[in-house]
Design a protein that fits this description.
This protein is α/β, with parallel strands linked by helices. It has 2 domains: 3-175, Carbamate kinase (3-Layer(aba) Sandwich), CATH 3.40.1160.10; 247-412, VC0802-like (2-Layer Sandwich), CATH 3.30.2130.10. Helix content is 34%, strand content 25%. The chain is globular. The chain starts with a strand and ends in an 18-residue tail after the last helix. Bound molecules: adenosine-5'-diphosphate, aspartic acid (ASP) and magnesium ion. The site of aspartic acid has 12 residues, from loops. Aspartic acid is lined by residues 9-10, 41-42, 47, 73, 135-136, 151-154.
């Protein structure tokens, strides 16, 4: 007998039928002799709809009230799912994040889990019940207010609970059969990965492959907890996210495991920045003080001795207005010429541990992009990732071209998208 944590995403519980289908799966796991804890997301696109509703009331809702609103989505799911399980003759008890002991920081909309004290979950399990937990939410340690973990955060709730309960496995059920070599919505010939390492999955998640929340992968790596990503619409074996690829897999291991894309970023260029020590520090300190997250940065000292340079960086579109505001205030002090804001960019990333030992990867990648007519605007690399910024409109063409260039296309299309709106 084992302890399983299962997480069902919004598309898996989009309507009453979905709730019943998922309830059957949960009961089957319980009948197999396991203790079962379930983390559930809001139904379908509920979270997006609640955000839109709030925006109709006020353009900038307070973080506290927005979190209060959004956590209602997961509460609806947890109660309905508990009812569906009860209907099948099994005992189920639902818990909010706070009741489940998910203690977080107080940063509304992007709270981090500090501690998990799942006493009530353990109590329910001991009494033979199935515990249903609302994903994506917790309670702030200092303010005692309800918080959310950021979009896609239910994955992190599941892994954090699995770690705290010392579960045997954490299963993430979604609307595709696992982690693929590219987003199956964009590349129908994407291949399902049997295994992907924590390090590769971290880079993929950070680069926009939203199939797993970035922090859930960080958590799993820290606790060495295996994650099984699979579909709630099929019984197919999914993808295992683990520390290392299994022995023997190396031979067939592709150089590139996956290609991720991200259309949620914008680019800011500060034009004509005086090339003086301390200027970059001043600019990025101001950005950091405003709590703005930045991703790629590019700066090159101008070759023609003008004494000026341009600095470009990327950041989430949602933080673009704040960042330009901060920079405008610095213009007098720093003495740059102008700021350009561009939200029509996209990021395309190649990820793979095999890249370390293969020097030609960059050349093949850039060659494929060039043949597809995709212009590269910025480049950044890590040991197992190469990312480029290009036009947003070119992203899908670029992903497909790179996927083919690295021979990742499946012989027969196996990537099925079972549900969800792709939002
Ligand atoms: P859930 O609602 O179950 O949390 P998400 O929408 O958050 O589901 O994540 C699943 C989606 O992630 C898929 O429908 C797919 O479009 C997208 N996705 C992006 N990159 C990948 C990838 N490499 N492998 C699988 N899915 C991916
Ligand atoms: N419902 C939340 C969202 O849509 C959390 C999640 O689904 O993981 O972002
Ligand atoms: Mg998700």
């Amino acid at each position: 007998m084992g302890l399983i944590v299962q997480k069902y995403g919004g598309s898996s519980v989009a309507d009453a039928e979905g709730m019943k289908r998922v309830a059957n799966r949960i009961v089957a796991a319980k009948r197999d002799g396991n203790q079962v804890v379930v983390v559930v997301s809001a139904m379908g696109d509920t979270t997006d709809e609640l955000i839109e509703l709030a925006k109709q009331i006020t353009p900038i809702p307070s973080g506290r009230e927005l979190d209060m609103l959004l956590t209602a989505g997961e509460r609806i799911s947890m109660a309905l799912l508990a009812m569906a399980i009860t209907n099948l003759g099994h005992e189920a008890r639902s818990f909010t994040g706070s009741q489940a002991g998910v203690i977080t920081t107080s940063a509304h909309g992007r709270a981090r889990i500090i501690d998990v004290t799942p006493g009530r979950i353990q109590g329910a399990l001991k009494e033979g019940a199935i515990a249903i937990v609302a994903g994506f939410q917790g309670i702030s340690q200092d303010t005692k207010d309800v918080t959310t973990l950021g979009r896609g955060g239910s994955d992190t709730t599941a892994v954090a609970l699995a770690a705290a309960l010392d579960a045997d496995v954490c299963e993430i059920y979604t609307d595709v059969d696992g982690v693929f070599s590219a987003d199956p919505r964009v590349v129908p010939s994407a291949r399902k990965l049997k295994t992907v390492t924590y390090d590769e999955m971290l880079e993929l998640a950070a680069s926009g492959a939203k199939v797993l929340h970035l922090r859930c992968v960080e958590y799993a790596r820290r606790y060495d907890l295996p994650i099984h990503v699979r579909s709630s619409f099929s019984t197919n074996e999914g993808t295992w996210v683990v520390k290392d690829h299994p022995e023997g897999a190396d031979m067939e291991q592709a150089i590139i495991s996956g290609i991720a894309h991200d259309k949620s970023e914008a680019k800011i260029t500060i034009v004509g920045v005086p090339d003086r020590t301390g200027v970059a520090a001043r600019i990025f300190q101001a950005i950091a003080d405003a709590d703005i997250n930045i991703d790629m940065i590019v700066q090159n000292v101008s070759a023609a001795a003008t004494g000026l340079t341009d600095i470009s960086f990327t950041l989430p579109k949602a933080e673009g207005a704040d960042a330009t505001g901060v920079l405008q205030k610095l213009q007098g002090e720093v003495g740059y010429a102008s700021i350009q804001y561009d939200d029509q960019i996209g990021k395309l990333s190649l990820v793979g541990a095999g890249m370390r030992s293969h020097p030609g990867v960059t050349a093949t990648f850039f060659g494929a992009l060039s043949a597809a007519g995709v212009n590269i605007e910025m480049i950044s690399t890590s040991e197992i990732r190469i990312s480029v910024i290009c036009r947003e409109a070119d992203i899908e063409r670029g992903v497909k071209a790179a996927h083919t260039a690295f021979e990742l296309d499946a012989d027969q299309n196996e990537a099925v998208v079972y549900g969800g709106s792709g939002r």
